[in-house]
Write a structure and sequence with these properties.
This protein is of the alpha/beta class and about 400 residues long. It contains 16 helices and twelve strands. The strands form two sheets. It has a seven-stranded mixed beta sheet with strand order 1-7-6-5-4-2-3, sandwiched between helices. Strands 8-9-12-11-10 form a five-stranded mixed beta sheet.
Length: about 400
């Protein structure tokens, strides 16, 4: 159970995301601290045996054990729920714990999941490999093809799962249309919203039932901590999701929750700057003779640009591009970078570059990568907070090395 804040900390009006991300969900102790407190505790002391009993029956909404709930984690969950426009949220130790819990908390043996083919490698593993071990079948579809979603529906379909923009090809999937297909089938639509962030896209408002994040990415955004979060209706979150998390234990540490609370205060500033830089870098790459292809959702040459502009308020902090050549040229380019760092992470204050075919998507077969459009020449660039001119110069020097 969660402690309830007796008085909301913000006025009851339509506040903007940047304001919500600074203030919402704060629970102050008797000391009246300005910054949120960090409650590093495993358990909680009760005034009496009767109170302990009431906590476990739910009659007293206090805390019991930090695997179930914790005041600092609770603040992070409340703030994220307010930012996302969700009724409730539960935090997890990692983003993959959030993805796994979002599905396995309510889908049972004998039931079916439909998912887009274009997924982060670990997400695809959950759908393709892990779920079938528990008797849950799955079908992967071209996420941009609405007919494919419709045709994949079976009488036992319980969940649709997608990410948009996709990793790493930055395809844009129509959340509203796919939600309508899911709901007509009696299924929930789960959206991994990591690439769009809660600032640029609101899947619940577009018809999704559940949203999940790797909070490791933009929400922390500074390469420090791991975390995840799942958001949705009160019924879903406090029902099957809460039971799954309570019994399986992928709990977010209070310290990590505290770090992310402080990170949320600058989330809007960070991602807006990063997206502006991404748009500039995409245009630079698009004009360069050694770049074969550039993918950025808000560029006019993106195949789903109209949809991107309809359901997002900015084009994301990531740019994907193919250099002319193949793996050798992509590696030579990466080796010539000075400011941009090579890693598999994203959504950081530092600009990061990844070669998906040999890292995040290396477990897929060559045919599966080709089907998704992931070539050996493809690179995924996550823009940080450096000066855009410095980044463009760094990329230009590296392209000259090819």
């Amino acid at each position: 159970m969660r402690c309830r804040v007796s008085k909301p900390p913000l006025p009851a009006r339509n506040l903007k995301p940047a304001t919500i991300a600074v203030h919402e969900g704060t629970l102050r102790s008797q000391f009246g601290e300005t910054a949120e407190a960090m409650f590093l505790t495993q358990g909680y002391v009760y005034d009496s045996m009767e109170q302990a009993e009431a906590r476990f029956t739910g009659a007293d909404p206090g805390f019991q054990y930090s695997r179930f709930s914790n005041p600092t984690v609770d603040m992070f969950e409340r703030r994220m729920a307010a930012l996302e426009g969700a009724e409730a949220a539960r935090a997890t130790a990692t983003g993959m714990a959030a993805v796994t819990a979002s599905m396995l908390s309510f889908v049972s043996a004998g039931e079916h999941i439909v998912a887009a083919k274009a997924l982060f490698g670990s997400c695809r593993y959950i759908v393709e490999d892990l779920a079938p071990r528990f008797g849950i079948t799955s079908t992967l579809v071209d996420g941009c093809n609405l007919d494919a979603w419709q045709k994949a529906v079976q009488p036992n379909t319980r969940a649709f799962f997608l990410e948009t923009p996709t990793n790493p090809t930055l395809d844009i999937l129509d959340i509203t249309a796919i939600a309508e297909i899911a709901h007509a089938a009696g299924a929930k639509l789960i959206v991994d919203n990591v690439f769009a962030t809660p600032i640029f896209q609101k899947p619940l408002a577009l018809g999704a039932d559940v949203v999940c994040y790797s909070a490791t990415k933009h929400i922390d955004g500074q390469g420090r901590t791991l975390g995840g979060i799942v958001l949705g209706s009160e019924e879903y979150v406090t029902g099957p999701l809460q039971m799954f998390l309570r019994q399986t234990g992928p709990s977010l540490s209070p310290f990590n929750a505290w770090v992310m609370l402080k990170s949320l205060e600058t989330l809007a500033l960070r991602v807006e700057r990063q997206a502006a830089t991404a748009a500039r870098v995409a245009d630079f790459l698009g004009d360069h003779p050694k770049v074969q292809r550039v993918i950025y959702p808000f560029r006019d040459d993106h195949p789903q640009v109209a949809l991107a502009r309809r359901q997002m308020t900015a084009g994301s902090t990531l740019v994907t591009f193919d250099v002319k050549g193949g793996k050798e040229e992509a590696f030579r380019f990466g080796g010539a970078l000075g400011i941009v760092k090579i890693t598999n992470n994203l959504g950081d204050a530092k600009t990061l570059i990844t070669h998906p075919a040999t890292t995040t998507h290396q477990r897929l077969s060559a045919d599966a990568r080709a089907e998704l459009g992931i070539s050996d020449a493809m690179l995924r660039l996550s823009l940080g907070l450096e000066d855009a001119d410095d980044l463009i110069e760094d990329l230009s020097i590296a392209l000259d090395a090819i």
